[in-house]
């Protein structure tokens, strides 16, 4: 069983699927949908917003990406991953 079979509301699982769709499969619409779902399910998780921000900037959606990374930094200001992004 996959993580989403066990818990379809797992924000972490949706975020991982988004990252795989972005970095491995190059399936931009799916990546966007998975990242959006992850942030809907867990809006206060900076570790989900940081890779979404990278995806958005890579897609040429800089304003949205910068907004995501700023929100991630607000949520977790000491996160190395968020600050590196």
Describe the structure.
The protein has 85 residues and is mostly helical. The protein contains six helices and no strands. It has helices at 3-6, 11-25, 28-41, 46-58, 62-75, 80-84. It is globular. It starts with a helix and ends with a helix. The mean pLDDT is 90.
Topology readout:
Blueprint: H1 3-6, H2 11-25, H3 28-41, H4 46-58, H5 62-75, H6 80-84
Helix pairs in contact: 2-3, 2-4, 3-4, 4-5
**Which overall shape is indicated by the principal axes computed on the Cα atoms?**
globular
Number of helices: 6
Structural class: mainly alpha
Poorly predicted regions are none
Mean pLDDT across every amino acid position: 90
Q: Mind summarizing the main beta sheet?
A: none
Q: What's the Cα radius of gyration?
A: 12 Å
Strand content: under 5%
Distance between the termini: 32 Å
Q: What's the β-strand tally? A: 0
- What is the H/E string? HHHHHH
Q: Provide the helix percentage.
A: over 70%
Short description:
The chain has 85 residues and is mainly α.
Characteristic terms for this protein:
85 residues; mainly alpha
């Amino acid at each position: 069983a996959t993580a989403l079979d066990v818990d379809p509301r797992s924000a972490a699982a949706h975020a991982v699927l988004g990252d795989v769709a972005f970095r491995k499969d190059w399936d931009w619409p799916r990546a966007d949908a998975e990242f959006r779902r992850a942030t809907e399910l867990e809006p206060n998780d900076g570790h989900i917003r940081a890779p979404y921000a990278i995806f958005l900037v890579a897609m040429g959606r800089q304003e949205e990406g910068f907004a995501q990374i700023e929100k991630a930094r607000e949520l977790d200001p000491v996160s190395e991953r968020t600050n590196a992004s």
